[in-house]
Amino acid sequence: MTIDLDQLQQGNRRALAKAITLVESKLDNHRAQAQQILEQVLPKTGNSIRIGITGIPGVGKSTFIETFGLYLIEQGKKVAVLAVDPSSPLAGGSILGDKTRMEELSRRNEAYIRPSPSEGALGGVAQKTRETMLLCEAAGYDVIIVETVGVGQSEYEVAGMVDFFMVLMLPNAGDELQGIKKGIMELADALVVNKADGESLNLAAQTKRHYENALHLLRQSSFWSPQVLTCSAQEKNNIDTVWGMISNYHIDAVKNNAFYEKRSRQNQEWMDKLLFEMLELKLKQNPDVKQQLPDLHKKVVNGETTPFIAAKTLIDLL
Ligand SMILES: Nc1nc2c(ncn2[C@@H]2O[C@H](COP(=O)(O)OP(=O)(O)O)[C@@H](O)[C@H]2O)c(=O)[nH]1
Ligand SMILES: [Mg+2]
User: 10 Å Cβ neighbour count for 178?
Assistant: First the structure.
């Protein structure tokens, strides 16, 4: 497959889709080609705001992304929507099933919507989404939204690849964390209480105060205190406020140098994660290791050698 890098960098959707297909491919030669492309476009990446969005099913993520995305397009932005959903056995995942909820957005030229990749080899689904994000940036997308449904470690992985991480909540003040894992709250740069409309308007305001108090106890970060907002994705209320908050974060973070520090840290962590996964793979695929492993397991089980000596023996084979 040949990919016209100029076309890609001019925002040609076909070129972008082809490059993403290489990133997501299971074939080694495709992946190698993808890495070459990524390296070549690297100088053109990084010029976006990366926003992560999570929340329980039904909270309104798809509706929010549709409304928010269309709002951003009105502001002159190009918007890419990606997903990390390790539960989807086939490429498809959360977004594809929800395309109906993002119907208008998916028809817009200024928007690019890509469903979650299916299970990836090294680095998993998140690795592919990170790479896809870079390709979208090279293609000129200003805002990258990464959605996750919160299966397994996916929220942590998404929080680790975005600049701003947001949790959508329901108007339900009494309901403690609404099924959101507690650790996720500590990662959140903002909680947004969606469905603040109709009869839920008061409850949403109450919920907002409730979380403001809870967050106050939870985290005191360097320059940014997590915010709580309310909005209605359906009625398109307060969407500008959400964007205003993210813009303010961006300005503050750049001023504080925290923006690029965070990205550097994320890149380093990403590299380390890959390094360890590659090492593990190399170990598992080493013929000598393969041969001696069962025997050493047995010796450890029988108390003939220590786990340390057995592990060391195998590592020394590399
Ligand atoms: N009243 C109200 N309903 C909403 C709002 N946003 C989404 N919904 C509804 O909530 C349901 C779930 O929304 P969806 O976007 O599919 O949630 P997701 O599972 O998080 O992607 C749908 O019936 C939406 O129409 C909102 O702001 N207000
Ligand atoms: Mg959805």
Answer: 15
Ligand 1: does its nearest atom lie under 6 Å from the Cβ of 195? yes
Question: What's residue 186's pLDDT?
Answer: 82
Ligand 2 centre distance from Cα of residue 17 (Å): 22
Quick check: CB of 116 below 6 Å from ligand 1?
Answer: no
> 236-284, pLDDT tens digit by residue?
999 999 999 999 999 999 999 999 999 999 999 999 999 998 999 899 9
Euclidean distance between the first and the last CA atom of the chain, given in angstroms as a whole number = 35
Domain ranges of the chain: 44-256, 272-316
Topology of 44-256 in CATH?
A: Rossmann fold (3.40.50)
Dihedral angle of Cα 255, 208, 155, 13, to the nearest 10 degrees: -70
Tell me how far the alpha carbon of residue 96 lies from the centroid of ligand 2, in angstroms.
9
Is residue 234 within 6 Å of ligand 1 at its C-beta? yes
- Burial state string for 114-124 with b = 16 or more CB within 10 A and e = fewer than 16: bbbbbebeebb
Gap between the Cα atoms of 127 and 117, Å rounded: 10
Listing DSSP states for 51-64 in one string gives EEEE--TTSSHHHH
Compute the distance between CA of residue 190 and CA of residue 271 in angstroms, rounded to an integer: 27
Distance between CA atoms of residues 1 and 219, nearest Å? 48
Contact present, 245 and 210 (Cβ < 8 Å): no
Phi, psi of 300 (to 5 degrees): -65, -45
